[in-house]
Design brief:
single chain; alpha/beta; Dna Ligase, domain 1; Nucleotidyltransferase, domain 5; 6-stranded mixed β-sheet; 5-stranded mixed β-sheet; disordered C terminus
Length: 412
């Protein structure tokens, strides 16, 4: 009997680390373990404190190992942050063989040619995503293998990341005792499980609303044509509530989740509008109360700002008129009530909430919670063999401390 293939995905988010352990089950991914821990060493997906991040990674993997009843040694990691940059580029090669038949090796070569673009010394290319091929300058070819032609071209979407930020991530994971198999841009992973093939083909906008960042991806003709990271997220709403209501961030977050609505007009009745919200002040002793309308009046301007920034990026992308399939919202920020309604109002496009698809799990929260969409997508992305191996040089041997811990575990 063939050995079950198991992989582990890790999402380094705005203020938490999420781990999923999965196995392949026919054409779906089965979740066999999950864990989530908070982390003050991360901000917007960027490491700001190595020791705290190492501790969080160690803890989340240990919990993931217990949940899955397996031993974890290497990780596929979803990354994000304002240091991510992307652009579209093209490459071309001549087919000099007499038969002119294009092979898979030719396709790999032309993609490498497109990848041969100058980037600054402090940046790394982490993705080169083929969009469209051309043969003898005739565009619109999806798969050129087996076709004949003397000139093969390709249009690609290239994603780069800050080398120093990547190195900090590798350092944290290595210190925790694990190796990095590969890194994947978070929004690309999410798209694997929340955007349908039909939406990708027709043209769609994916908005992943995290705590400190908003991640955008525009799909067209089945491939990614635009990605962007914005330095604003749902934690801005939490901070607005904490300031406006004079309470702690923890209480403000609870109010947002229980009573918050993206737009005041989304409240169903005057009765709900006047519903009393009781909470503790910032000192944790005195009790305060406001109407639900007041809560929504604090939230609404920030939501409008978020979608205004998104709309600005979409308009500047050059693809604003090519996303008729509409908007797919995901990430923790998409849990705010009425957020799809707000997106439709601001962007003038149909919008829906994106939850992980083609994922099986005995844990209902995994497939019903968009905060798990990135790690779910990363598992599918990896099992689909779409992850490159361009960062092999960063893989490092398991640390002595990790080996010793495993030896003790196995011995006893």
């Amino acid at each position: 009997m063939a050995k079950q293939e198991i992989i582990t995905s890790l999402d380094l988010g705005s203020s938490q680390v999420i781990c999923l352990v999965g196995s392949r089950e026919e054409d779906k991914v089965k979740i066999i373990g999950a864990s989530k821990v908070s982390c003050r060493g991360l901000k917007g997906g960027v490491v700001v404190n190595i020791e705290e991040t190492v501790d969080a990674i160690t803890k989340v993997i240990e919990e993931g190992e217990k949940s899955a009843n397996t031993d974890i040694r290497s990780l596929y990691v979803a990354i994000r942050g304002g240091h991510i940059e992307s652009f579209n580029h093209r490459g071309a090669i001549n087919i000099s063989r007499s038969d002119k038949e294009i092979t898979a090796e030719d396709v790999a070569t032309v993609i490498e040619a497109a990848k041969a673009v100058q980037v600054s010394a402090d940046r790394e290319i982490i993705h080169t995503l083929a969009q469209d091929f051309s043969i003898d300058r005739q565009a619109g070819v999806n798969n050129p293998v087996g076709m004949e032609g003397g000139h093969l071209g390709v249009f690609v979407h290239i994603v780069t990341a800050s080398t120093s930020h990547l190195n900090n991530i590798y350092k944290c994971i290595n210190r925790a005792g694990f190796t990095v198999e590969d890194v994947v841009l978070g929004v690309l992973a999410v798209g694997e499980v929340v955007v349908t093939p039909e939406e990708k083909e027709l043209g769609a906008l994916l908005i992943d609303i995290g705590g400190d960042t908003i991640n955008l991806a525009i799909y067209l003709k089945g491939s990614v044509h635009y990605t962007k990271e914005l330095p604003l997220g749902s934690e801005a709403i939490t901070r607005d509530l904490a300031y406006g209501l004079r309470t702690s961030g923890t209480v403000a977050r609870e109010i947002k989740e229980k009573y918050g609505v993206a737009l005041l007009g989304y409240l169903e009745s005057k009765e709900k509008e006047n519903e009393e919200v009781r909470y503790l002040s910032v000192d944790g002793r005195s009790e305060r109360s406001v109407s639900r309308r007041t809560v929504c009046e604090i939230i609404e301007p920030r939501v409008e700002e978020i979608f205004s920034l998104v709309n600005e990026q979409v308009q500047n992308s050059g693809f604003a008129e090519e996303i008729p399939a509409g908007v797919i919202l995901t990430g923790g920020g998409s849990l705010l009530k009425g957020i799809s309604y707000a997106a439709e109002e601001s962007l003038g496009l149909p919008a829906r909430l994106g939850l992980p698809q083609e994922i099986t799990s005995n844990l209902a929260e995994i497939t019903h919670d968009p905060t798990y969409a990135t790690v779910c997508g990363l598992l599918k992305y990896t099992f689909s063999e779409q992850v490159g191996r361009s960062l092999t040089k960063y893989r490092k041997k398991t640390t002595l401390a990790k080996k010793f811990r495993r030896w003790v575990d196995e011995f006893f």
